[in-house]
Amino acid sequence: MSKTVAVVGAGVGGLTAAAELRKVLPTEDRVVLIDRSFEGSSGLSLLWVLRGWRTPEQVAVRPTPTALPGVDMITGQVERIDLETRTIDLGAAGTIGYDALVIALGANLNIARLPGLADAFDAGVAGQFYTVDGALDLHLQVEALESGRVAVLVAAVPFKCPAAPFEAAFLLADQLGQKLTTGAVTVDAFTPDPLPMPVAGPAVGNALVEMMRAKGIGFHGGKSATGIDPKARTVDFGDGTTEAFDLLAVVPPHSPNAAAASTGLGPNGWIPVDPATLATTAPGVFAVGDATALPLPNGKPLPKAAIFAEAEGEVAAHQIARYLGYDVPDTRFTGEGACYVELGAGLAAKGEGNFLTPPTPQVSLREPSTAYHDEKQRQERDWLARWNIRS
């Protein structure tokens, strides 16, 4: 009897899982990929849109049936996942049953979680770079700024791409150019964490702080935002301090997708998974990417990053095939990964290592070079070419 495997969410993890499932499952088994629009963008390119090096159209990801042969692509909003009946509720579009499931619904931006943030966006005194339109708008806001202070704010943890806010600070400083070097505009980064990328360890975090200082960027750790006053252009923090800004570049609070939370698999909505297999506590249900809470040996969660979502998608596909009784490799998630930190002027540093190494992740930050900038460009080209195939 044929089986149906459903993948919900067509981001990095979902696309990878669907493509790999189609490779390893028999042709009579159905692979269904469900997404609300199949209209996205390359996450690693968003900061280049912020810098003005890419347009939204240049980084668009629109997966096609030609790129996913043999996969049924269904457009619909996932309202609820019922683990008992093994069904996916698509609202007015009906329901889809499954024999096995990959949850790849990512993380949502939750602007309402930080008081005053929505009003700051509406007033034009704040912008964000976690969507392609937001990155473009913020670029234009920075371009128009002649004097004052740019505050790069991590509103809350966890958030997608742990390097992104600090890479944004570097690229905003690069964009400001002489306005920064003459002191007309200053750039400061604020985060609730004590150091940038804390899971990678203090050596990586301190190295990034020193790189920021060398570029004239201030770093302020241990700063948990509690509210924003858009009229006064200030941010209040949990330690009782207040910081002024002229333009706020913010990483909005992130929340779990409501449909993923509807499963009840995680007490706070993020879905716990086995670190090696990506299995959840529900039989035949796996989760990958930003939707997950993958525990590291030191008890901290694996950072939410595309490089991990891609590797997890392949592992989940193989583990599902084995769950369904097929003879495929027992692939495991290794925890190896890398990310790039653009500094501007064609230079990028590279953090890489193994995050599952006990007792703590073993991660190194490589010195900035043009070679790492070129590596990131190749990754971008490969990803866009893989999914934007037209027949």
UniProtKB/TrEMBL annotation:
Q: Where is this region: Disordered?
A: 358-377
Fetch the Pfam families from UniProt: Pyr_redox_2
- UniProt superkingdom: Bacteria
The protein's GO terms of the molecular function aspect are: oxidoreductase activity
The residues covered by the FAD/NAD(P)-binding domain are 4-313
Which InterPro entries does this entry report, sorted A to Z?
A: FAD/NAD-bd_sf, FAD/NAD-binding_dom, SQRD
The molecule here is called: Dehydrogenase
Q: What is the lineage of its organism?
A: Bacteria, Bacillati, Actinomycetota, Actinomycetes, Mycobacteriales
